[in-house]
Amino acid sequence: MTRNFLWTRSTAFCERVTRLELHGLHFQHLNLCTRRAWMYLHRINFAQWNRRVATGLAHQGTHYTRDHSTVGLFGLAPDRLDWDAHLVFEHKGTGGAPTAVDRQVAFYAAMLSIATGYTWHGRVSILANRRWREVNMGATLLDNLWRDSERLEALLRLDKVPQAPRIGLCATCSLAPFCGYD
Questions:
Q1: Residues with pLDDT less than 50, the chain
Q2: Range list of H helices, the chain
Q3: Residue 151 CB partners (closer than 8 Å, separation 6+)
Q4: pLDDT reported for residue 129
Q5: In what order do the strands lie in the sheet with 87-92?
Q6: In terms of DSSP bridges, do strands 87-92 and 121-126 run parallel, antiparallel, or are they unpaired?
């Protein structure tokens, strides 16, 4: 049984998301790399030229086609929805960066929870090993989404690319040639 969704910050969160034109990938990028999030917020995105991204999109497009459950959603792009079970599905190639992916899925679940009044949850499917993990909405995850939205708003106000440490993701990041860590 799905419980009713109650979050005192729902209205303020939706207003911020709308004003800043945020969506799931903003929350994912923020939890990967501050510099990557800044670039994405400022519409600097070179993923379409990245061989790894292209391969992943082709694989997902031929093996896991997006179903019609997401048609008509504005600003949300999960891979699939189970409207009856209030469940958001997101498919990922590997299990890397679980916190970042969980925040992306949590964003979708939070927005659907706010819109419908029912608590939505997420499920991340890992395509490489055919496993999955649950993303359950709770107070801690909602607080993290709120803080992430504050951080995204602060990043959007920055005129210059913020400093960011070199991390393991840099080697395969689609922005590496423009970031300086290639």
A1: none
A2: 10-20, 24-30, 34-41, 51-63, 98-116, 139-157, 176-179
A3: 30, 37
A4: 86
A5: 80-82, 87-92, 121-126, 131-135
A6: parallel
Contact residues for 32 (Cβ-Cβ < 8 A; gap 6+): 97, 100, 169
CA distance between the termini of the chain: 49
Query: CA-to-CA distance for 168 and 28, rounded, in angstroms?
Result: 16
What's the CA angle centered on 67, arms 60 and 114, to 5 degrees?
A: 110
Q: Work out the burial of residue 22: count CB atoms within 10 Å of its CB; fewer than 13 is exposed, 13-18 middle, 19 or more buried.
A: buried
CB 26 within 8 A of CB 40: yes
Helix (H, G, I), strand (E, B) or coil at 9: coil
Q: Amino acid identity, residue 28?
A: Q
